[in-house]
Amino acid sequence: MGTPELALQVEPARWLGAPAPGGLALPPARAGRGTLYAPRGVYLDDRVVVVADSGNHRVLLWYGWPKADHQPADVVLGHTEFEAEGPGLLHLPTAVALVEGRLLVADAWHHRILVWDDLPEGSGQPPDRVIGQPDLRSTVPNAGGSPGPAGFYWPYGFTYVHGWFYVADTGNRRVLGWRGVPEGLRPADLVLGQPDAYSGAENRGRGVGADTFRWPHALVGDEMTLYVADAGNHRVLGFTPPPEQDRPADLVLGQEDFDRDFELPHVPQGPQRLRFPYGVALCRDYLAVADTANNRVLLFPGPPRRGVYLPAAHVIGQANFAESGENRWRAVGWDTLCWPYGVWGYQDLLAVADSGNNRVMIWRLRRS
What we know:
The termini are close together. It is built from no helices and 25 strands. It is globular, with a radius of gyration of 19 Å. The protein is an all-beta fold. A five-stranded mixed beta sheet has the order 14-15-16-17-21, with no helix packed on it.
């Protein structure tokens, strides 16, 4: 899988969630220690694997590297029991990550980000603090008002980049940024994608451009570039260096220019086109993009920093760049995908929240 000149092997390494019964039938999703329902976020490092089990409104944790496929989780957050389901503490959790030793969870439909000061050791452990609401009891959009410099409306994604904490404030069509991880309703130091902190119009109310968002959903970055998956405009934007004030992007993937939001459904996609890219991750020297509606993950080498309409070098989940079917229109297999959302890179491992298949797949990227 991939181009011979880059000599990259991409192999599935671990399957979390229940096994598939065969054919196009999906793995079972009923809440339990070893099942997932439409997961949208994933994080892993040497200590833990964390999964936003979005459809069950909970977060599952596996301590250490899972020793076997379909291994039961060790801890559940959002409920006190593994068999419980439905909204409670969490309502559609999405992005998850450890940031400076703290576990952060984007509790998207409660319009907040929850913070555990240490890695939770027991099921049902409550969070220690909240971002985007005045207290842990509050769950209304924009902290009960209109768009402002501190509240959220569907915060689906976040990332911590070179001392800056960025949040994809999706419903307000913007990215907010703070110097350091904030708490409560601390005003943002940066509003990216809107003319001020009190605006929330799609594409700034004037049409798609290099400084607009329609549906910013996920973020990732390093000391050189911040990447934003602008899913509603079918593209990924890159800001080099990471922004400290509102400005146009330097990179666009998925579109031929910054002022386009073209969608090309149900035809061969090729290595450059994106449809609803909901996730981005850095893994080795690649930018991984969850090209969700095309049921694939694309790997862009470099990673790219500037330019337009650059091609991917590798595809995961499809046999080639032309195909885009759910599970290749055949069966739920080890190397297929169905609506992948969140992605996370760690060393040579790329974790994919394979939402439509009710599972998380961890892939290994090897140089041959």
